[in-house]
Each structure stands twice: as C-alpha cells, then as structure tokens.
C-alpha cells in the first residue's frame, strides 16, 4: 500500500480552468446578492459612501471566498485524480460521481430525517 507524504502536483492550467468553471457556477447562486448590491450602489449618493457600506463588504467577501473556494476545490479534485492514477474520462466521471454523492449525502440525509419527523 502506498502512502501519500506530500501534496500531489497539479498543473496550474488545470487549476485555473477548473476554478473559473466552478467560480462561474457559484456566481449563478450568488447572483441575487450581487444584483441587490448593484441596486444599492445605484441608489447610493457617492461611490465612497457605497464602498464603505456593509453591502459592498459582504459582496466582496462572497466573491473572494467563492473564488478561493473554487480554486481549493479544483485542486482537491485534481490531486485526487492524480493520486488515484485515474487516466480515463470514464474513471474521472466515476470519481466525480463519488465526490458528488459524498458531498450531497449529508444534506440528503438531513432532508430525509426532517421529512420523517414531520410525518410522525
């Protein structure tokens, strides 16, 4: 059995492409936050007033954390693909499905438990 004593190397271009894709997908979820912030910026009296507001800070924090999270998630998946020696698209699809199921399982089980308690 092999051990992993280091962080696997991943091509920077793979991280960039994956981070852009993941970040774009997460921006679709954050669109209402940015839309509301845009409308508040239009209503602000000056740019300085808006940039000092809590809404601007919240939108910047959401955007930045989404970008960093996308890059970390992309590195993790790419490192896992490299560490497991997955060489085919089919193997990567299986691995991606397992990652998705593992990340979705807590919310699905919580949903099932909450529905079960409302039926009793």
From TrEMBL:
The lineage of its organism: Eukaryota, Fungi, Dikarya, Ascomycota, Pezizomycotina. It comes from Aspergillus brunneoviolaceus CBS 621.78. It comes from the Eukaryota. This is DUF1761-domain-containing protein.
